[in-house]
Design a protein that fits this description.
The protein has twelve helices and two strands. With about 260 residues, the protein is mainly α. It has one domain.
Amino acid sequence: MGVPATSATDSSSTAPVVRSVSLLQPFSWLLRGGRDLMRNPGASLFYGMAMAAAGTIILLAVASLPHLFTAAISGFLLVAPMLATGLYDLSRRIENGEPVRLVDSMQAWRANPSGLVGFGLFGLLAGTAWQVMSLLIVAMLYKGNAMAPLQLVIEVLRDPRHMQLFMAYIGIGGILAAMVFALSVVSVPMLLDRKCELLPAMQASIGAVSENPLPLAIWATIIMLLVALGFATFLLGFIVIMPLLGHASWHAYRDLIER
């Protein structure tokens, strides 16, 4: 049974309603996301290549800064929902039977510039906060002398002396990631789809997580596993994985928020 969420549309609209979904619904989102990708592979893969390129540039920029390397990876993922706006628009157009063109999707932010730019600033703030916290964690708890990012990661994972650092990093990073996930799981596609403000969209997103904790925990796990696979392929996997997740996230929004 759905529960009302805070109003996220214009003053003439009713408040959105959060739906309950089945435990395995996230796999349906992936399937439908894959179909959207196959219907317009050119535009979808363009966004995948752009995200992979952006991730590569970010990682190269901090390659010689071990204390910022892993934070840069996490920070990129914190702002990824905003980068997927064009993919949401492609899925929306496919759903509505509208012409699906890359150039149109690249201007999707114009549908709700204040809300989407506001979320972009939120993502930037969250990413910056994580960078600062990551730097403080390493500065306070790291006792080695690794100079390369990979060397630092290996040392932290292998040396029992760094267990406190590892637990602090995972714990604080996990809490921040969970907060961002809860605030963004439906808010960005909702901002694109409706004339609503940022705060009500985030409240609706929190409502979706509260109503569906287990399905969305599965969804978050799927996202983490696919992203890990993308990094394991030196970001080449992102060319397909990011469009797949972007399209699937649109269908998650459609199932979780009643029209």
